[in-house]
């Protein structure tokens, strides 16, 4: 059971006493133990410092010079305690030990966040993963970067805005329709630097929008929701970009949901596309992997890996600009060696995408040099 000082309702007591200018009562209440117990009850440090400021007003009114040093030392002590607390994943601890309500009480002040938007959005994803959708929505709505999404504030090209937008997109599809997301994407503006032309700024904005749509596809395809997969294919965007996003979705479905019926259809679309393209080695291994995983088609898989070069994969331009494939997949065909009777080699693949390199397992027939 919470004592009076541990109760959130008691945290307003000192404020009301200060407003009534009952300075003697303020000093009587504002002890080191009082502030420590508030801190231990996870009352935000910023709010505790406000109470210390009220105590200092009482000190001035009562002309108690010694008490000034006492409150300065209390503030210093709590600041050091907060530094230690900041090094811990306090939200995860609260969620695990005390439940969702305790974590929300720490995170939220009414409808406002006590932490940065990025922290809020990360915890929103954590709650979504545990099925706490109502609590996740509350945090999401408080953490949405509305100034960026409405175009009121342009995106800084060199800063934290892009990371924040990615986090937002990974959360947003749980609470917003695709039409609403696309409206927000189209409203984004990019901050121009002194030396950039209008065309360069427009190109940067278009690139950010395209990248956000790819983040959306990755986020949606990570979940087992075929209705959303279908809806995602109907985004009202430029046709070539739509085709590329649908292809990304197909690869993701095959990679992450190989036993879902939709994987068969997705693989058919990939095979139709691949038959008209000149693919690099990694894509061919991916297709072989999918044929084996989804259809147990050893003969078909063998045809796709016939003649794969053992040389180091090129770091040049990836086919059709779809370099997202490199960053999303690692292929390990070792479990299928008995079916194919092939030799295993390891090949380091340099990626031109967000991660510097990935290691893929290639299966080749015969000798290599």
Q: Report the biggest beta sheet as strand number plus sense, adding barrel if it closes.
A: 2 strands, antiparallel
**Content-based structural category:** mainly alpha
What coarse outline follows from CA principal-axis ratios? elongated
Q: Please mark out the parts with pLDDT under 50 across 5 or more consecutive residues, or reply none.
A: 1-5, 310-369
Mean pLDDT: 80
Radius of gyration: 28 Å
Distance between the termini: 73 Å
DSSP summary: helix tally: 20
Instruction: Summarize the helix and strand pattern as letters.
Output: HHHHHHHEEHHHHHHHHHHHHHEE
The fraction of residues in strands falls at 5-15%
In total, the number of strands is 4
Cross-sheet strand order for the largest sheet: 1-2
What is the percent of helical residues?
Answer: 55-70%
